[in-house]
Write a structure and sequence with these properties.
Largest sheet of chain B: 4 strands, parallel
Structural class of chain B: alpha/beta
Helix content of chain B: 40-55%
Order of helices and strands of chain B: EHEHEHEHH
Distance between the termini of chain B: 35 Å
Number of domains of chain B: 1
Strand content of chain D: 5-15%
Strand order of the largest sheet of chain B: 2-1-3-4
Distance between the termini of chain D: 57 Å
Number of helices of chain D: 10
Oligomer: heterotetramer
CATH topology of chain B: Rossmann fold
Shape of chain B: globular
Shape of chain D: globular
Number of strands of chain D: 4
Chain lengths: ~280, ~150, ~325, ~270
């Protein structure tokens, strides 16, 4: 990469997966072999994806660093850039700048149980770390994934949910909001916090990784507390609007903390020290 | 200047002028081919910003045309457009934009001949005025401003 | 490098100016038709002003232009290619007659643009700039450089600092190798320093910035912010005239197949600055944005960038349409 | 102005309003808007020739509205802005108390909006004299000269949007310049884009501008951008014989029409 920190890598869209009517996953490959060679990232980091002519948008890398040769991103059609991305086809070119930000401390978690809790479009930022720990399955004890969405059609990564469900070494609980179920829905029906409370996973030697809309976080935290989780054992990610990705453009700060440099991964213990600006 | 071919953009409404222009064609009336027609549902939809964008992208002249008053497909779109054009024209005049380069007209679906006439007189007038250099310079100067520091 | 003091006669100043402008662009202050002081590239020496208190805009655009092209791209149906901008083509610029507050701002900007990873555009522009500073012999009620560890004759950021002497000649402090290069190339313009007294303004200290920073640490939820920002109308004037405000936006602009990505000035005072696509806005109302502005400069930056984000030039206050006087507010914050 | 202070105190004391929006002199002597919530502090209020800002801009501001019912010190331009805001249903007539100030700077007794309307109708509704002169000068120039003049002026624009933010009529939460699908106006500042922005601003204010001149006053780089909207105010009167902000029931010129609107340029 040149010295120009604003210049993205050119990536080709290798595969497009339609997750839901407005959510897509792209598998991206570096156009330049050298770039692919020297590129590396860790679970939790994010990048700036660009459509030339429309601008850049920030999402987490959704694939695991253990899967080499490509990166994946999942996004919902929402604004100018994501709409433009959604209109692209396989073989088209996009830009990628990154990786930026900090990572999930998965080394620290070795030997512990992992509890992943995600809601809606918040599974993608967690998918990276989920696969990363699954690919290093021996290092962790029980892995539990609780995932909920508004309706069955809003569940992303349906193929993978099926795969996780079938694996004996992963416990998967999926749920949809009441009214969002289909006749053949086999998972739970109810909001994530209630489903979590019912499942009552042990907090003993366990790290909880929580990601979802603010309202889900708000109601899930008391449940985790009730289950005996300590603030330092709960991790989440923050999202703020970003332009540069490296602490210069001045948008994403929460107090003195830059989400792009000091985040996006925070323990709940850290979050409690931050002013409410996210 | 003899080899100058004016670029004229026409913003027309679907129901009258566009149909009128169609009639010009089916009636085999010849008119200047310098005009590029952009069809809108109604003159009420023709935002003044579009006119500015036409100049910015190299148009030398503009035609705006729709249904005669009282003939609007949506009853009042052209009355609203008329007020907007009045204001726009006055503002452009005040800012020194050359209003001889914009033709406003009413052309009905039956006025194929009038459409040809509107286009031809506009193209002739723009041909006499020459390319809209001062606006092009304005756009170019802005590009230069940006690269000045590079 | 050790500072050396020299003397430039009033009449030699023009020679120095012409010498510098012979092979570089010179950016110097002039008084425009509407009586505002503005910086211009290569004005005639006779038009250059030496008696301005502050220019309307700061001089940060020499290193952080209001629009900086980042690269060009070209799109076909499926392919995109990127053309780099050759930053080595960035011209050499002499910044002439900038006051100490303005020149001190470059270090602060560097602490933003070059912390962690280096912004080459900024760094190159800084490298290609020679600064001939000018101490202030005039000031007004908006000035507060002395409250932020600066003074009307601070040397920070200048390669050569001129200070007017009472007889109209100038003292020239040669502060860097770059500045020394000018002396070596035309030694005839510089004489040994005389006994003549300097002509300098005095700026009263309005607050103690360390106390302000200490107070701000616990002031996030203070009702002060709402009470004191009700009148703020949320324009970007303060940020755009500020010599140290560095927040920017990145945008694409395409014409046909070709386009460019550029960055342009932005302001934390705008409501849409932090707006998420979802509609959620972490800084929803103006008081939160005003708090961000003050906190960033006087609390976050001292901690994260080890520099205060303010040079006390007073532009934000003099340029504010509703008299959001920053020095006054900091003074009040010191005592909350 | 003692009568103003007394009246403000009264309103706050008997809880008719929770805040009085007026003018005060800041520590540097510069006049600034003041938000008085405590009757004891009403003595700060002043009104003199320096009190130029159009305070009506605060009537639609969330944090000010949050304070409660408002009274507002209002000379003619502010009164007209209030009228416009009522006619565009941005504020309710009942929700504000107008402390009207006459041309000779005395407190008016405006019992309600009807009385205010009567006062406005009797007043001179043209552009301020100084701006009339500037407009006349510009209108004397050739189109080429005017084009050059505006290019020179607008090249200075830094897109700080003070003109928009200071205008009581620019109350949209998302302005057209901030719409990015499509991006009508370039985000960056360059002469051409700046010109497009000011054309857009003037057009959106056509028939709504009440000629207070606030946009020009607040411009940090001194662009007389108020002349654009004022020229249109003149033309609105010229063509349609209406002045903005004269009635609480008026709909804006560009959102209505008369079948017999006269013009001479449409062929």
């Amino acid at each position: 990469m040149s010295d120009n920190i604003y210049k993205p890598y050119l990536m080709a869209i290798e595969q497009i997966i339609e997750e839901t009517p407005d959510v897509k996953t792209f598998r991206l490959k570096f156009k330049n072999a050298d770039d692919a060679e020297q590129f590396s990232f860790k679970a939790g980091q994010f990048g700036e994806y660009s459509v030339f002519g429309e601008g850049e948008s920030t999402f987490c890398v959704a694939s695991s660093p253990t899967r080499k040769g490509y990166i994946e991103c999942t996004f919902r059609k929402a604004g100018r850039v994501t709409n433009a991305l959604a209109n692209l086809e396989e073989g088209d070119t996009v830009g990628f700048r990154g990786p930026f930000g900090n990572t999930f401390p998965i080394e620290q978690w070795e030997g512990k149980n992992l509890l992943y809790i995600a809601g809606g479009i918040a599974l993608p930022p967690m998918r990276c770390v989920i696969w990363n720990t699954i690919d290093l399955r021996d290092k962790y004890k029980d892995i539990t994934i609780v995932y909920g969405a508004r309706s069955v059609s809003d569940l992303v990564y349906k193929q993978e949910l099926k795969e996780w469900d079938e694996r004996p070494d992963i416990k998967l609980i999926t749920t949809v909001d009441p009214g969002g179920q289909t006749p053949d829905w086999k998972g739970e029906i109810g909001f994530v916090p209630m489903v979590l409370e019912k499942a009552a996973p042990s907090s003993e030697n366990t790290v909880a990784i929580l990601c979802g809309p603010p309202v889900m976080i708000k109601f899930t935290m008391p449940v985790l507390k009730k289950l005996g989780f300590q603030d330092k054992d709960i991790y989440t990610t923050l999202e703020n609007r970003m332009k540069c990705g490296f602490g210069k453009c001045g948008r994403c700060n929460v107090g003195k903390i830059f989400v792009c440099k000091d985040g996006p991964v925070f323990s709940y213990e850290q979050i409690l020290t931050l002013p409410e600006e996210y | 200047m003899s080899d100058f071919e004016p670029k004229v953009v026409a913003f027309v409404c679907n129901w009258c002028t566009y149909a009128g222009a169609d009639l010009t064609g089916t009636s085999r009336i010849k008119y200047a081919s310098n005009v590029k027609i952009i069809r809108f549902p109604c003159t009420g939809r023709i935002d003044f910003m579009l006119l500015l964008k036409a100049f910015a992208n190299g148009a030398d002249g503009i035609i705006v045309s729709g249904c005669h008053p009282n003939d609007c497909h949506y009853t009042s779109g052209n009355f609203h457009a008329k007020r907007r054009w009045i204001m726009f024209k006055e503002l452009m005049d005040f800012m020194g934009v050359d209003m001889n380069r914009i033709t406003f007209s009413w052309v009905s679906a039956a006025e194929g001949a009038k459409w040809a006439d509107v286009v031809n007189t506009t193209v002739t007038r723009i041909r006499e005025l020459g390319p809209y250099l001062s606006y092009k310079e304005l756009v170019n100067r802005s590009v230069e401003e940006e690269v000045k520091n590079e | 490098m050790e500072t050396t003091g020299k003397l430039i006669r009033k009449q030699s100043l023009e020679k120095l100016y012409n010498l510098l402008s012979a092979n570089r662009k010179v950016y110097a202050p002039v008084i425009a038709d509407d009586k505002q002081v503005e910086y211009k590239y290569n004005p005639d020496f006779k038009d250059v002003t030496f008696d301005h208190i502050r220019s309307t805009l700061s001089v940060k655009n020499v290193v952080f232009p209001k629009v900086e092209n980042l690269f060009y791209y070209s799109n076909t149906k499926t392919e995109s290619t990127i053309t780099d901008i050759d930053i080595n083509k960035i011209p050499e610029v002499v910044l002439w007659g900038a006051h100490p507050c303005d020149t001190a701002a470059f270090d602060i900007l560097r602490s933003i643009f070059c912390w962690d990873i280096k912004d080459e555009f900024f760094a190159k522009r800084l490298e290609k700039m020679l600064v001939v500073g000018l101490s202030c012999h005039l000031s007004d009620e908006y000035c507060f450089c002395t409250s932020v560890d600066l003074a009307p004759n601070s040397q920070k950021g200048s390669d050569i600092l001129l200070t007017r002497l009472q007889n109209g000649d100038y003292q020239a402090e040669i502060l860097t190798e770059k500045g020394n290069g000018i002396v070596t190339s035309s030694p005839e313009l510089f004489e040994s320093i005389s006994e003549e007294k300097v002509s300098m303004t005095e700026v009263k200290q309005k607050f103690n910035h360390e106390q302000v920073t200490a107070k701000l640490a616990g002031a996030f939820e203070n009702p002060f912010w709402v009470a004191n920002s009700l009148r703020c109308i949320g324009c970007g004037a303060c940020a755009y005239v500020c010599p140290t405000c560095a927040c920017f936006d990145i945008q694409d602009e395409t014409k046909g197949k070709n386009g460019k990505r550029y960055r342009s000035w932005d302001s934390c005072g705008f409501g849409l600055f932090t707006l998420h696509t979802s509609g959620h806005n972490p800084r929803q109302v103006q008081s939160q944005r005003w708090r961000q502005r003050i906190m960033h400069k006087f609390s976050y930056m001292p901690e994260r960038n080890e520099s205060l984000g303010c040079v006390g030039c007073g532009r934000c206050s003099s340029g504010c349409p509703v008299d959001m006087n920053i020095a006054e507010q900091l003074e009040a914050l010191q005592n909350i | 102005m003692n009568s103003l202070i007394t009246r403000a105190k009264e309103l706050l004391e008997n809880k008719t309003v929770q805040v009085v929006i007026g003018y005060e002199a800041g520590p540097t002597g510069v006049v600034r808007p003041s938000f008085i919530t405590d009757p004891a502090k009403a003595d700060k209020l002043i009104y003199d020739e320096r009190c130029m800002q159009n305070l009506a801009v605060y009537l639609t501001k969330a944090e000010v509205k949050y304070l409660g019912k408002m009274a507002i010190v209002a000379a003619l331009p502010v009164m007209r802005s209030i009228m416009m805001l009522i006619s565009e249903q941005q504020i309710f007539a009942e929700s504000i108390v107008v402390l009207g100030i006459s041309a000779d700077r005395s407190l008016l007794d405006l019992a309600d909006i009807k009385v205010m309307q009567g006062y406005i109708e009797k007043s001179d509704l043209g552009n301020p004299a100084k701006d009339k002169e500037l407009l006349a000068e510009l209108n004397k120039l050739s189109p080429e000269e005017r084009f050059a003049y505006w290019q020179k002026e607008l090249s200075k624009c830094i897109k700080c949007y003070a003109c928009r933010q200071a205008c009581p009529m620019c109350y949209c939460t998302r302005c057209t310049v901030e719409v990015n699908q499509p991006q009508w106006i370039p985000v960056q500042s360059n002469t051409h884009g700046n010109m497009e922005w000011h054309i857009l601003r003037a057009m959106h204010l056509a028939g709504r501008c009440i000629s207070c001149g606030e946009c020009g006053r607040v411009c940090p780089v001194g662009i007389p951008c108020h002349l654009l909207t004022m020229q249109l105010s003149d033309q609105v009167y010229n063509y349609f014989k209406v002045h903005a902000g004269t009635s609480e029931k008026m709909s804006s010129v560009l959102s209505t029409y008369e079948p017999n609107d006269k013009e001479s340029f449409i062929i």
